[in-house]
Design brief:
The complex is a heterodimer of chains A (93) and B (377). Chain A has 93 residues and is of the alpha+beta class. Chain A has two helices and five strands; from the N terminus they run E-E-E-E-E-H-H. Chain A has one domain: Roll (SH3 type barrels). Chain A is 31% helix and 35% strand. In chain B, helix 8 packs across helix 13. Classes of the chains: A alpha+beta (93), B alpha/beta (377). The structure holds iron/sulfur cluster.
Chain lengths: 93, 377
């Protein structure tokens, strides 16, 4: 909850609501990109972002993304976040 | 310590440890007269234990584990209120999973769920919004918990709900802020802190200036740090160098992620949706001025406190904590987790008595999780 997880933004799904698809360790989910969109939301596609509870909070480079992910795995936080994403899918039903 | 395999850059880590030791010697820090450095963020606490940094650094440095674990500082009364809302007919109560096992006076959210309340663990308030869209005949409440890293997410979700005109979505806002409890700790005459490691991801949102008062008014250094082990070592060194030079400043070791002025969109959303409460209750720390947020009147339709008449504003103060639990003393660094009479006896991660045992960011759970591994070394 406190540590963001790096994800790569792969597509814009709803420009009006500032929503995009992000890939986080092989898991895809919709995230809000309001905090990083700037004036050109399409420019986000392909970029890495630190994602906090479904919100992209900061654009980072690929190297930083890899290092952060490794650190999160070491702490067990990456696995926990991915589990929470899976749980959340169930909760929608 | 399996040094080479544990660190990404073992040579770099060794050099940093040597520089830390040399600087600690120059300051005259010893095991009996240590320099006390508080890491504010629970993520840092976890990292320090995971890598055994407290054992690797010079013996004249002592870590004091700060209040930066949101579930650990959640008073039992707030958990009771969550349960009360969740047990109302027609309510779907949504929360981050972290809050599920925090003990309340009667029960935790986990227990309430097993007894039939519709409580759902979600990864994001966006999912709570989606549940509200799909269940128009139910009241969907999201438990807004956490520091400035999660505050923008609930603020933006409330703005979105307002734009859509959703009438069955509300947030039970118990968001708290990082700088205020630090001020409270610095004002505590029993506290002997020499410097701080500042939170990385919180600072990504608020920037580094909300900490200015720590250097300016209290003369203590603070270095905002990333949470990789070498980030932490480098930050500790930066704090020590300031002490050696007789300086106190707010420095940013994590500038690759933390902008000086934070994230403008997040800050604007927070300012639009929330206002400060005059004071707020923290488990173990008591009431702290201006340390909690509530939803502004104009978004009152999305305020669960208002909708249900339940919450901090409506509750009586100072509900006592469980007897024999030393969470408060541990949280203020006056006691080590292992000195708590309940540690490992009445309180384990499986059956937590206090909140510090619930999350891996809590000092007690971190001690518990890594103490075994250490004993084997
Ligand atoms: S061991 Fe349990 S009761 Fe004791 S301080 Fe830690 S969390 Fe609180």
């Amino acid at each position: 909850m406190c540590l963001g997880i790096p994800g790569r933004i792969t597509a814009i799904t709803d420009a009006g609501r500032l929503m995009a698809l992000a890939e986080v360790s092989g898991v895809r989910r919709e995230v809000n990109v309001a905090c990083v969109a700037g004036n050109d939301i399409d420019a986000l596609v392909g970029k890495w972002a630190l994602i906090h509870v479904g919100f992209a909070m900061s654009i980072i480079d690929e190297d930083e993304a890899a290092r952060t992910l490794e650190a999160l795995r070491e702490l067990g936080e990456a696995q926990e976040t991915l589990e929470q994403m899976a749980h959340s899918k169930e909760a929608l039903q | 310590m399996k040094f080479a395999s544990e660190f990404r850059d073992p040579a770099g880590a060794r050099a940093l440890l040597a520089a830390i030791a040399a600087t600690a010697e120059q300051i005259g820090a010893t095991r009996h007269k240590p320099i006390h450095i508080m890491e504010i963020c629970g993520g840092h606490t976890h990292s320090i234990f995971r890598y055994g940094l407290d054992k690797l650094v010079h013996e004249g440095i002592e870590f004091v584990h700060g209040p930066g674990c949101p579930v650990c500082v959640l008073p039992m009364a707030r958990v009771d209120e969550c349960v009360e809302i969740a047990e109302r007919p027609g309510v779907i109560f949504t929360t981050f999973g972290d809050a599920m096992r925090v003990p309340g006076h009667r029960k935790s959210l986990m227990q309430a769920k097993s007894e039939g309340a519709d409580i759902r663990m979600v990864y994001s308030p966006l999912d709570a919004l989606e549940i509200a869209r799909r269940n128009r005949d139910r009241e969907v409440v999201f438990f807004g918990l956490g520091f400035e890293t999660t505050t923008p997410s609930t603020a933006l979700s409330i703005q979105q709900a307002a734009r859509e005109g959703l009438t069955n979505f509300s947030v039970f806002c118990n968001h708290i802020t990082v700088p205020e409890p630090i001020k409270a700790l610095l004002d505590d005459p029993d506290m002997t802190l020499d410097g701080f490691i500042g939170p990385g991801h919180v600072s990504m949102v608020i920037g580094i200036h909300p900490y200015d008062f720590i250097a300016r008014d209290y003369g203590k250094p603070l270095v905002v740090a990333g949470f990789e082990p070498t980030d932490l070592l480098q930050s500790i060194l930066m704090v020590l160098v300031q002490i050696r030079e007789g300086r106190a400043a707010i420095e940013n070791q994590y500038s690759r992620v933390v902008p000086e002025h934070g994230n403008a969109v997040s800050l604007a959303a927070i300012a639009d949706v929330y206002e400060r409460r005059p004071s707020f209750e923290w488990r173990g720390l008591g009431e702290i001025d201006a340390s909690g947020l509530r939803i502004r009147r104009k978004y009152g339709a999305f305020d669960a406190e208002e909708k249900f008449g339940i919450g901090y504003a409506a509750s009586s103060r100072n509900v006592p904590e469980i007897e024999g639990c030393a969470c408060g003393a541990v949280m203020t660094g006056k006691m080590k987790p292992t000195q708590c009479p309940q540690f490992g006896i009445g309180c384990t991660p499986e059956m937590p008595l206090g909140a510090l045992m619930v999350s891996s960011e809590g000092a007690c759970a971190a001690y518990w999780q890594y103490a075994g591994a250490r004993a084997a070394e």
